[in-house]
Amino acid sequence: MQKLLYEVSCGACTVADALAELKHFPSEMLSCAHLDHHRRLRTGVPEVVYGENKTAGQIADILKKLLGFSPAVMATRVSQEKGEAVCLEIPGLVYHGEARMVTAKMEEPEPEANGGEGLIVVLTAGTSDIPVAEEAYVTLRCLGHAVEKLYDVGVAGIHRLLSRRDLLDKACVLIVVAGMEGALPSVVGGLVDKPIIAVPTSVGYGTGLGGIAALLGMLNSCAPGIAVVNIDNGFGAACMAASIGRQIRRQKGRS
Amino acid sequence: MQKLLYEVSCGACTVADALAELKHFPSEMLSCAHLDHHRRLRTGVPEVVYGENKTAGQIADILKKLLGFSPAVMATRVSQEKGEAVCLEIPGLVYHGEARMVTAKMEEPEPEANGGEGLIVVLTAGTSDIPVAEEAYVTLRCLGHAVEKLYDVGVAGIHRLLSRRDLLDKACVLIVVAGMEGALPSVVGGLVDKPIIAVPTSVGYGTGLGGIAALLGMLNSCAPGIAVVNIDNGFGAACMAASIGRQIRRQKGRS
Amino acid sequence: MQKLLYEVSCGACTVADALAELKHFPSEMLSCAHLDHHRRLRTGVPEVVYGENKTAGQIADILKKLLGFSPAVMATRVSQEKGEAVCLEIPGLVYHGEARMVTAKMEEPEPEANGGEGLIVVLTAGTSDIPVAEEAYVTLRCLGHAVEKLYDVGVAGIHRLLSRRDLLDKACVLIVVAGMEGALPSVVGGLVDKPIIAVPTSVGYGTGLGGIAALLGMLNSCAPGIAVVNIDNGFGAACMAASIGRQIRRQKGRS
Amino acid sequence: MQKLLYEVSCGACTVADALAELKHFPSEMLSCAHLDHHRRLRTGVPEVVYGENKTAGQIADILKKLLGFSPAVMATRVSQEKGEAVCLEIPGLVYHGEARMVTAKMEEPEPEANGGEGLIVVLTAGTSDIPVAEEAYVTLRCLGHAVEKLYDVGVAGIHRLLSRRDLLDKACVLIVVAGMEGALPSVVGGLVDKPIIAVPTSVGYGTGLGGIAALLGMLNSCAPGIAVVNIDNGFGAACMAASIGRQIRRQKGRS
Amino acid sequence: MQKLLYEVSCGACTVADALAELKHFPSEMLSCAHLDHHRRLRTGVPEVVYGENKTAGQIADILKKLLGFSPAVMATRVSQEKGEAVCLEIPGLVYHGEARMVTAKMEEPEPEANGGEGLIVVLTAGTSDIPVAEEAYVTLRCLGHAVEKLYDVGVAGIHRLLSRRDLLDKACVLIVVAGMEGALPSVVGGLVDKPIIAVPTSVGYGTGLGGIAALLGMLNSCAPGIAVVNIDNGFGAACMAASIGRQIRRQKGRS
Amino acid sequence: MQKLLYEVSCGACTVADALAELKHFPSEMLSCAHLDHHRRLRTGVPEVVYGENKTAGQIADILKKLLGFSPAVMATRVSQEKGEAVCLEIPGLVYHGEARMVTAKMEEPEPEANGGEGLIVVLTAGTSDIPVAEEAYVTLRCLGHAVEKLYDVGVAGIHRLLSRRDLLDKACVLIVVAGMEGALPSVVGGLVDKPIIAVPTSVGYGTGLGGIAALLGMLNSCAPGIAVVNIDNGFGAACMAASIGRQIRRQKGRS
Amino acid sequence: MQKLLYEVSCGACTVADALAELKHFPSEMLSCAHLDHHRRLRTGVPEVVYGENKTAGQIADILKKLLGFSPAVMATRVSQEKGEAVCLEIPGLVYHGEARMVTAKMEEPEPEANGGEGLIVVLTAGTSDIPVAEEAYVTLRCLGHAVEKLYDVGVAGIHRLLSRRDLLDKACVLIVVAGMEGALPSVVGGLVDKPIIAVPTSVGYGTGLGGIAALLGMLNSCAPGIAVVNIDNGFGAACMAASIGRQIRRQKGRS
Amino acid sequence: MQKLLYEVSCGACTVADALAELKHFPSEMLSCAHLDHHRRLRTGVPEVVYGENKTAGQIADILKKLLGFSPAVMATRVSQEKGEAVCLEIPGLVYHGEARMVTAKMEEPEPEANGGEGLIVVLTAGTSDIPVAEEAYVTLRCLGHAVEKLYDVGVAGIHRLLSRRDLLDKACVLIVVAGMEGALPSVVGGLVDKPIIAVPTSVGYGTGLGGIAALLGMLNSCAPGIAVVNIDNGFGAACMAASIGRQIRRQKGRS
Fold first, then answer.
1. Is there a contact between E5 and B18 if contact means CB atoms under 8 Å apart?
2. Distance (Å) from the alpha carbon of E205 to chain G's nearest alpha carbon
3. CB of B175 within 8 A of CB of B185?
4. Which of D154, F151, G31, H120 would disulfide-bridge D125, Cβ 3.0–4.6 Å?
5. Chain A residue at shortest CA distance from G126
6. CB count in 10 Å sphere of residue A186
7. Chain center to CA of G237
8. Closest by alpha carbon to A76, among A7, A132, A127?
């Protein structure tokens, strides 16, 4: 743009030619803005491949292209078989079985010694909810956030939750994953004053309606400070938590 | 029947005539059984009028007839206006405003001194759930059961629940009334080892779906020992609790 | 706690140290209470493994650990293949094919001679409802309750129900299992004055909506004294029935 | 048509003119067929006005026009106020309060002496279902069918149903009206071998879902020989019953 | 009964003994009535086995028992493989592939020469609806009714329907099977004045909701004289049609 | 933009200043594009006010502002009372009672003499669907399209539809408005080869589910060339039809 | 008809015989009209086979018959395996893998040089929506329409959409295919003034409800000029677009 | 506690007595913890009264009590009439008409000069969504947060959104309120990298299903970083945003 304006100012380009060139400018500029925005995103969030209906070959192809732009990539909803095939083809990738994800190899998590600054804690009500929680955990780790797990602390084992209250107190965001009646976010919301991202899971049967019961329970929670993502959407919860985490870091950077 | 058999035995009635008379016997006998069953019921549960779509006049007419059989009568879902009209017309009846019920006047509740033997406790999550809980309370009182209330002890005020744990321990049945996400029965079910009758209420808005969210939450509870009745059905919960209470009394009577 | 107090009383521990140690006391005490509560539960209800999404190996591992605490264990929703693998690995366990459960070996059911005291009767409307009923039956047997079965007594064969009315009369709780329109609990509720736990099943097709039709039928029953559990939740119905049964026993013990 | 063909045959009309005249023949012929069909319908079923969203004036206007064709007319879903206004304006009409219908005055019902030949019986489970049943009753009476009522014979009062088994035996079609769990058609279907038209009503609350629960119950009935109409559609049930009744009469006429 | 009364009349049995013997009389008498009713049913409708979740062996076992009572038996929802296995084991049975039924061998359908007296016509909107229609057809044939088929006459091919209007005119009952929007019963109902049993099918996708769209279309039909059965319930429609057919025969027999 | 470039080319504006001015250029340019797009829209479609939750005063205020830009304005979902108040306040506006709309006064519709070129025909199944159809009709008239009405031509009166087939043949787009089972678009789609915009209405009761039944019927139509808008959305259907009409005009203009 | 009239006019056929022959005339004439209509359809739309539940053999048989009438045929919802079997059996057919269709071989698409006259553009939000879009694309190509694709231009990549605005401007109809929240049609509708046919897809999970979320999003779009077809119904969208395209061509032909 | 320990340490209290006193300690300690937690909450969030089903008198009574603890109080869902009555009774309170809230008088919003640090921006798609947005706005203002409004920037007016991109860039959290198809959060999520709290509103009709369509659209958004609250729940969104805001402040405080 600057170049074009200089050319106009020095007569190297007529006004008419400049206008012609600028004809599709809005979308190009927007698309530049978009790319810029993308770049910012990429510093925080690597490109993500939704692997559900893709073959191992298709997933590998896209991941290879993405690796050209950034060393940090992710693929979600990848079955064991497909995941292993992809990792075999592309060195430097890792398959996370419970999370059903392929990511670039990640360094060990930083020790918790930092006082939980910006710490995100992922909780589950039961053991069946763990795969969804792991999707959130791996995503957050891949995005460079400090994450801790607190699994299987549902209403029936609430003492386990209470006994780790120190961990909850250190967290800045909580991701609470629960199926069946989805009551855990309400209980956690009654204990701590932190933003809670509730993730309903399809764990359950009959009137669980594939997660609808848990979703409704969470949307109707009487505890304040809870927002909800789609059923089984561990990745989406991680994105929301990461987005909050980035705001906290930015504010710290400013001060 | 006995009379007929005597008549047959003494020849006052021929076998053929007896057979003709017995032609419709099955339904008559069943209907006797039914009446007998009804009588038994009546000792426990007085006749009940569902007042929703009835006029004050209609309610009064039915109650008058029922009063001929038993001094203990009840009408549910009666508006303030209708209830007062009915009580004005029939002396000895009382209108319970919050419960929206008309009943015969009841003596003061027996002191709790009996050690909570057969005690039924009615809990609510919030204050908006109280009318449904009162319907259960008044019904149980009218049926002659020992009942205690523990209102507004939802997840957001769980310490109030815990601080009355002694009361929960004395109870033999719990009726837990909750709207919105309906999580209270799960939490109570994690604390005590008593049969819990969960009553979803239509308290809430939007995705509360008029009580469906609470209902689903209760049906999918991960805590054992919970069964559910229809939305806002305080009366039905009381009947279930009373039925359990009667079994306990009978077993005591036998021992 | 007692030990700590002694130490304080004898000066072995300063008040300040005691306070520090007691900092996390509430949750620990609660967790003690919880364990105590658990122990109580365990006397009644053994630990239960939900086998749906677990491998035979995972089920076996958990069962082994539970067997360390109590000889009475259960796993529900276990397929034939998985169940047999588990039983092969852990001696002393039994697979119940129709109930799809693994339990510790149980002694023969006590004879009905006890006059049905505390007897729980499990009914089904059709033969397709039997697996759900068996889950309830085996659970109750495993919890040490007297149980009788009355299967395939749906509306279309109501004479079979009526012809076993003596059994209904001896029961203290009824579990009524039905799919399709779920009308059986209403009919039973019109015949006997006992607490009825209604279990909708996913038997049916089309507008049966996987058990929703039966569930709605049961929730809207015009007969009093009925409460409902989740679709196909034979285990949950058994827990509710067992909970009622324990109350009856306790009251007997007191008198 | 015949006239046109004669004109062609005698040369009074050219083939080309005849073809031109016949251009729109299909729809005209069909519409004739339709009118003929209509006439047949009218001998059985008078024209019907759906009064729900119409003013008293509009209803009266349409009824007046219809009275020009046939003395037998009906308007359904007419409120008390509108109905009385219509009857005031048009002499010879009657307002049926419970049925919420306006019809021409009808002679007294023929005595049941005819042995119930072609008799249609309308049953209701409860008293709140009566308005829907009355819509069916008045419609059938207006269509000239022999109808009997058997109201308030729900599952909770099944002896009343059984005690009128003679009436059921005389019927050729049964209309069974029920709200809440809608179990009555199943029970009736287990007792008699007659076509049953089941009418769910919106009586109930909460999970009754405005009649959906009753509808699902009826559609999933395990008893054979039941078909269902829309919620609260007493008129539609009457039309189906009348249609069956007409077939019976025709077959009788032939033999 | 008669015997007992004679014994009483001649003193061979005391009144007290008779009363004791009659204690369970109601249910026994009812069960007699029931058996009688069953017998009547069996003359019309042979015993039916719902094969969906049964093995070939289970189906064969039940069919063998039923064949002891009546030569006319049926099993519905039987897969090709299971059906052939059953027929191999029990001679005299036939597997109907499209209808997915096993029945006893049936004589050739009576010629239509009887003038359609009591004729039942089964229509389908499309070719995908044929299996459901065949279930109705085979059931009716097995029950001894005159049946004709009119398949693939949906709205998009309405001229095929109109061109067989003579067949519709001869029928006394119509079974109309349609998936997708389920509009065919409305169109047929506008053409003929016969009772129409509408069968929604699960044919369709997306918003067809497994037959719910067709079901709703049929329940809300603006044409009179239509009643609906469960989705894909060809058997149920046949039972309703057969029930109507029996009434017509009875009335003919009387006149 | 051109001005800015000239200033740059002649030195009246430095490149730096130009860049600063262009900082927010993308959105401004887009917003220009948008305004331009708006202008184009306005030549076809006047600004529209959704009156549902607005007071007469609010509606009048917005209409006054819009009248400053264009003489053609519309407000939809305006009650009688509000509509008359608005027309009283702003001269030159007209209230359309059945359509529940306020528009600028429109000249008389052009005679149909133009051979139906670009003609849009609006059909309804019943008389209760007319208000929705009128919303479409008035909107189209206001947008300057040739429109004809064909009301009350539902399946039960299909000869009326067939007798006006000439009108259907002249149309280039059909808007078909129907409630209840929503079958009319399927039938019309079987008769003509024109784009059909189907509008479900909330006319009906019970399982009509406020128009959902009609919507599902239309979405699952077996006839090709049908697309659907929201329930009761006559305005949306008119916009779609107008959009098609504009394409036809443009193509004509080009040729 | 003309022949018959001549015979009548020349006495070769009596009026009576003519009337007899004309007895079933309405349906025959309608069926003629229908065939004529069919012929017209066929010039535009070739016969289509819905392959979902048909075997390769059944599909091949129907296609062979259709090829007797027209060289242009289509089969939709055909799996890879079935499609290849059909193409092997019938030379001259092609299998389109992504569209899951079999069609006659088609000439190369005409160059876009015609200035987009009557151009239809098919857009998708994501890559998972492409199969549905391809069904629309192949259908339109097969029907002889000019079609362009613009895939993977969802909200997250809106600059790609904006950068091809020239293509949108050339189109006369847009088909917009989107799953998940289905927001793309709203965004496109805010950009261009063309008729938009929105196709929800079943892409998504959890609360996507198999496409219901996308469907609702599209039906409730705040942008004017959008109409919707069934979930995953690429074929139906193509038929609607083709129908609009034919109207445009006809108007051009007239001018 | 400390006191008790001292008494033990000095012998003023025996260990046995201390244990007895500590029997109910867990719940008391927890309830202390809870109060402490409450206090912390109160510094952030004042006590809130849900006014929906309360009378003006009831609201006033509760507010008076709350004012004893904190000068900052709120009541939501308060009608104009009730709100004015409350403000008349309690000086120092203000009624916010659009937000339908009563709060304590608040000082003027702090100038935006602080560089948007911790700024929360509330957006709406249309004007009808404003009441819900105002509930969020007033709640946040009352909680002491910097808030800005950006109303009526839906997809149809996206240039308005883009033209205020600077405001979006300054925000740390966005609350996006939208009814109908609920597409705005997706579009905003594609533009900025901030946590987005999406609030579906019940604005719309027909298939809008009282906000369900918008809710589903938001839950299925393809844009990352979005979480959702209940329909019309402006207050809940504000609580979530405030909770995020508090985390940001705390992290700033630490650094």
1. yes
2. 8
3. no
4. D154
5. A50
6. 32
7. 6
8. A132
Say if the Cβ atoms of E206 and G52 lie within 8 Å: no
Mean predicted confidence (pLDDT) in B193-203: 94
Question: What are F103's two structure tokens?
Answer: 């528009």
Residue B45 to residues B48, B141, C193, D127, Cα–Cα distance (Å): 8, 11, 10, 21
Mutation site for A-interface testing, chosen from H192, H228, H232 by largest number of A Cβ within 10 Å:
H228
Tell me what ipTM this predicted complex has: 0.82
What's the gap between Cα G59 and its chain centre? Answer: 19
Task: Please report the residues numbered 146 through 165 in chain A whose beta carbons come closer than 8 angstroms to any beta carbon of chain B.
Answer: 154-156, 158
Judge whether F212 is closer than 8 Å to chain D, CB to CB. Answer: no
Residue C208's nearest CA partner among F172, D61, E212, E244 is E212
What would you measure as the largest C-alpha separation in chain B, in angstroms? 77
β-pairing, F101-104 with H173-178? unpaired
Residue H9 C-alpha, separation from nearest chain A C-alpha, in angstroms: 27
Distances (CA, A) of F34 to F41, F242, G192: 10, 20, 10
CB contact under 8 A, G236 and F226: yes
Physical contact, C and F (3 or more Cβ pairs within 8 A): no
CATH topology of domain G120-254: Rossmann fold (3.40.50)
Q: Are C175 and C201 in contact (CB under 8 A)?
A: no
G174 neighbors F226 (Cβ within 8 angstroms):
no
- Determine, for residues G247 and F197 on separate chains, whether the beta-carbon distance falls below 8 Å: no
Tokens of H119: 């700024």
Which amino acid belongs to residue H120? I
Residue E191 has pLDDT above 70, yes or no: yes
Please, how many CA atoms are within 13 Å of residue B2, restricted to the half-sphere of its CB? 3
> In chain H, what residues touch A248 (CB-CB under 8 Å)?
247-248, 251
Amino acid at D222: C
Question: Residue ranges of the alpha helices (H) in chain H?
Answer: 2-9, 15-21, 25-44, 56-69, 80-89, 130-142, 158-163, 165-170, 184-191, 212-219, 234-254
Residue E252 and residue D251 in contact, taking contact as beta carbons nearer than 8 Å = yes
Q: How far is CA E247 from the centre of its chain?
A: 15
Cα–Cα distance measured from residue D220 to residue D200, given in angstroms and rounded to the nearest whole number: 13
Are G230 and G210 spatial neighbours (Cβ–Cβ below 8 Å)?
A: no
Using an 8 Å CB-CB cutoff, list chain C residues near A157. Answer: 34
The Cβ of residue A255 has, within 10 Å, a number of other Cβ atoms equal to 11
Which residues on neighbouring strands pair with residue C104, listed in sequence order? C93
> Between chains, do H247 and A244 touch, taking CB under 8 Å as contact?
yes
**What are the extents of the domains in chain D?**
2-104, 120-254
A163-169 long-range contacts (CB < 8 A, ≥24 apart) are: A163/C24, A163/C27, A163/C28, A163/C31, A165/A191, A165/C24, A165/C27, A166/C24, A167/A116, A167/A121, A168/A121, A168/A192, A168/A194
Name the residue among D27, D200, D232 with its Cβ closest to that of F163. D27
Quote the pTM value.
Answer: 0.84
Phi, psi angle pair for D70, to nearest 5°: -150, 140
- The lowest-confidence range among D189-193, F158-162, G37-41 is G37-41
Other C-beta atoms within 10 Å of C85: how many? 19
Distance separating alpha carbons of residues A225 and B74, to the nearest angstrom: 43
pLDDT tens across A109-139, in order?
655 444 456 899 999 998 899 999 999 999 9
For residue F69, how many other CB atoms are within 10 A of its CB? 13
Distance from CA of G142 to the nearest CA of E (A): 21
What value does the mean pLDDT take over residues B193-199? 94
Closest-CA residue of chain A to C49: A127
Range from A117-121, C172-176, E174-178, E199-203 carrying the lowest mean pLDDT: A117-121
The backbone torsions φ and ψ at residue F7, rounded to the nearest 5 degrees and listed phi first, read -60, -40
